[in-house]
Amino acid sequence: MNKSVNTLRMLAMDEINAANSGHPGVVLGFAPIAYTLWHDFLKITPKCPDWFDRDRFILASGHASSMLYALLHLFGYKVSMEDLTKFRKLGSLTPGHPEYKHTEGIDSTSGPLGQGIAMAAGMAIAETMLAARFNKEDIKLIDHYTYVECGDGDLQEGVTLEALSLIGRLKLNKLIILFDSNRIQLDGPVKNAGGINNPKEYFKSLGFNYLSVSDPENLDEVKKAIKKAKKSDLPSIVECHTIIGFGSPVANMSKSHGAPLDKAGMEVLKQNLGYTNEPFTVDDDVYLDYRSALNKNTRLYNKWKKSLKEYKTKYPTEFLEFTKVLNDDYTLSDNMFEGFEYKNEATRKTIGAIINIISKHYGSFVAGSADLTASTNVKGLDGSYDIDNRLGRNINYGVREHAMGAITNGLTLHHVRSMTGAFFVFSDYMKPAIRMAALMGIPSEFVFTHDSVAVGEDGPTHEPIEQLASLRSIPNINVFRPSDAKTTVQAVKYMMNDKNRPSVLCLTRQNLDLLDDVSDKEFKNGAFVRYENKNAKGTIVASGSEVSLALKTKDLLMEEGIPVRVVEMISTNLFDRLDSKTKEAIIPRNIPSLFLEMASPYGLYGYADYVYGINRFGASGNCNDVIPYLGFTKEKVSECFKEILKK
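Now predict its structure.
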């Protein structure tokens, strides 16, 4: 039995035992496939972990992280043996699931089942886009594969099924899925819950090249399958018929999934594997086997660096653009918007014009909507991305909001900046991906239109109420709700210039009046004074379309001799990052304040003393009827404000 494979198995098991926590099943079953892929195929180098032309590896079953950390250690990444002993310990480099930016060599955070394959789809799309844009006949800067490990559970998730059908449709042939098909999940055999009954026919029907490995312990069989996958002009799935908990007393049992083996079980495992090493020890010949496999990759990396220098000389214009991609530089400046025509219009209209400007300056900027392009205006240039148009920058996602969010994260991880478009109420479908983007600290950009009950005729199913509160509560995110075309442009500039957070942009269906200019300095506070009055009896705080209503309410109150201040809250997230002194200057606490927003009041009492919001679902009717029906008129708001002043 292969000594290097068993060392991988046991090193991962040592981590689990030291933590007394983890998932032995997939580690013991999948180790031969992981070893073969990393040892014989994966184009990576610890010399430059972020090498742009490296192969990507996504461990969709992120609970198998102990195996991934063991691989990184054995291949010479900055994961020491001591790091392995601290598996799942607070502050370690080896957390319970892989975390992007936290541990060297991790291409994405993973763990929530279903996200992995969809993110990999985004990476594979990005690879083809950038290859088509930058590769020349004499110099190929971009030529790599995206590999995904997945389990039975991944293939039960709806987001995965959405992604798979798009992967097949787009013929992403450099995406290879290694399916850990052990037919067992935590609650028992997969058949109890229902899985894919005939994987071969199922994946073929989606446009995949299907391959099978009957004996994963036979490394030659594994190699042959991966070689065939790499030669295919279709995306490939390699079904590996593994045994969960291989070699242990609980092999082929669901109990091997997520609980460490006891002492007796470990003894049986060692005996079955013929393994005699003490915990956290690796023989020199095993280290040599792993690290010698990287020699060819070091040569490839050095050759790539040489090609990059040659490319710079031969193709200086393209090199400059490629450098911006490498540095994730999609900065938007004021001069890019010189002559921009600001209009009294729905901000969903404004975003289309903004996307055109960004696209003209950045050839690697893409956009796409979930079958809503005509409504959201979130559409990329140069035609639709497709099999015969890899330079197309509009992605037809179809009605696949779940996958669209995760695919966007994959694009972002591969330094292709993108915007997605959907109705705001359907952000619920994308919440897991948005949360993952925030967790990874990547600048994915999610645009949502039809942001309030002003959707009107479509009724309460399409009218967002609680979505703002939900998304604002995510750590490390920017949620913007601009009040007009001008602040929409400012929001997009901020989004594109922030490299460390995802952003959500909430836009209107209905037309909005243009308001006075706001400086970028004020904008960056997240809240700014729209109307100041030193004699003010109180402050009305508002976001989005309600800013205009707040100003009209102010005028009505002023007619009655009641001076009022008006503050626009374009982003609670930006405002939250201010110091208390700056916050107090914008929304002083010595006078009463009212937050005006056509959404749930939840969470808004941290910004104002009172909230004028919506504590119910919306209603079906023309927006000009629905809005006053729900009380959002200057008369109703002014009456509320006057009642506050009486208290």
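The chain has 25 helices and 18 strands.
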